[in-house]
Amino acid sequence: MGQQPFETADVDDVPVVTSPDGSAVFPLLVLDGRGSLAVFELAPGQVSHAVSHATVQELWQVTEGSGRLWRRQAGREETVRLTPGTAASIPLGTAFQFRADEDADRPLRIVAVTMPPWPGTDTEARPEQGPWQATAR
After folding, report:
1. What gap in Å lies between CA 137 and CA 121, rounded to an integer?
2. Is the pLDDT of residue 134 over 90?
3. Most buried residue among 48, 87, 95, 96 by CB atoms closer than 10 A?
């Protein structure tokens, strides 16, 4: 196995793109084609579109702001509170939607590891029916 180069990235120096769920994404690093690291962000009061992933799984940790995460998989569903320090998984095929609290003074910011690397293919994110009306792009 060949050596991987060291990489360093700063969220303030990477281009911002829009995720299929409407959140702002700061793609940071990709390692060996197996996973990536990105920051996802919603402004206060914003609600993402509900989606599920065809190929990507995610591990999240909230670093700033607050909100809620809804997840549904195989007939079970839950809504959990998101605050700094909260970690959550988005297993393959899970429908999910998240929202930032309206009264928050900071955006909801989530650091995510995605496996395989985000964004995958153009058809990777599939629209789903979620509990909230989406307001993000």
Report:
1. 19
2. yes
3. 48
Residue 20 CA to its chain's centroid (Å): 10
What DSSP character marks residue 133? Answer: -
The whole-model pTM stands at 0.93
Q: CA 73: distance to chain centroid?
A: 17
One-letter amino acid at 10 equals D
- For tokens 């959140």, what's the residue? 23
CA atoms within 13 A on the CB side of 64: 12
Q: What is the SS3 assignment for 11? A: helix
Asked whether the beta carbons of 98 and 42 are under 8 A apart, the reply is yes
